[in-house]
Amino acid sequence: MQQHSVNAYTTIQKENLSGRELEASVLSRAGLMLKSVKDNWDAPDRDQKLLEAVKFNQKVWSFFQAELSDPENPLPKNLREDILNLSLFIDKRLFEVLAFPDPEKLTIVIDIDFNIAAGLRTNTGQ
Prior knowledge:
The chain is an all-alpha fold. It is built from five helices and no strands.
């Protein structure tokens, strides 16, 4: 059910947003999913929600990894490498959270998701 909602959300967003706006929106969604888990850490369905949020974040960052690895990507090489390194850090942190759950470990990924989203929105003139 959750995945269906995410797919519907993404489809609607694709129809109405530019590339950077879509990326910012998806990153914001990823951050909000993690923040919801962190804010409701003692909820009985925490493990399920955590897994959903981590998987969504992994998909988002895997997409960025694929895009940034493309030699045709127009971003400067240094910036691509920096974002790729950041994505590797995020991968590591998300696996760590799954292996050793702790709400504070989510904070850095939430902050990164929101900050990158804000940067993408700034670059689109919003």
